[in-house]
Design brief:
By secondary structure, the protein is α+β, with helices and mostly antiparallel strands. The chain is 29% helix and 37% strand. It contains four helices and six strands; from the N terminus they run H-E-E-H-E-E-E-E-H-H. A six-stranded mixed sheet has the order 2-1-6-5-4-3. It is globular and about 55 Å long.
Length: 161
């Protein structure tokens, strides 16, 4: 298979999975290898296999956030790897990171990378911006020390001596 054909097949496999997630599907074995690895950033954890992904990511996300609308802004593919960035628009309707439901509509920014084997995802490094979500529901995880303060002029950045 040519590189371009492999890239197209990889992207198609990922888009099928994204459609399944957006549709609220419960059986993810069609999209992931049984032993796939989901590698999230701090706060998200690491899921080994489809069952851990479902129990420790898919279901808790559904419990905390309802009325989800997946808004992928851009997909890229290169051989057996694909990537995207975007966000989920959802209602905070269940406990999230210890914060009871606020009913607020939030944006959950994410970046995903996938390695596809034989039409299914085998590896999935992920970055989900949980600090941004926490800020939207009233919790500043940086306790006022986020570097956005440099950008808005309310703090002066340190510099090496």
């Amino acid at each position: 298979m040519s590189h371009d054909a492999q890239s197209a097949a990889t992207l198609a496999a990922v888009k099928r999975m994204e459609d399944g997630l957006a549709a609220g599907e419960n059986d993810m074995y069609a999209y992931f290898t049984p032993d796939f690895l989901w590698r999230g950033n701090q706060g998200c954890g690491t899921k080994k296999g489809v069952e851990e992904f479902r129990r420790n990511w898919q279901l808790p996300l559904r419990a905390a956030f309802t009325d989800r609308d997946y808004k992928t802004e851009k997909f890229l593919a290169d051989g057996d790897w694909a990537a995207c960035f975007g966000h989920i628009e959802a209602t905070h309707s269940g406990t999230f990171m210890g914060v009871a439901a606020t009913g607020k509509r939030v944006k959950i920014p994410y970046m995903d990378f996938w390695r596809v084997e034989d039409g299914r995802i085998a590896d999935n490094p992920v970055s989900v911006d949980f600090p941004a979500v926490m800020a939207q529901i009233g919790v500043d995880v940086f306790a006022g020390h986020g570097w956005e303060n440099y950008d808005n002029g309310s703090a002066t950045p340190a510099a090496p001596e």
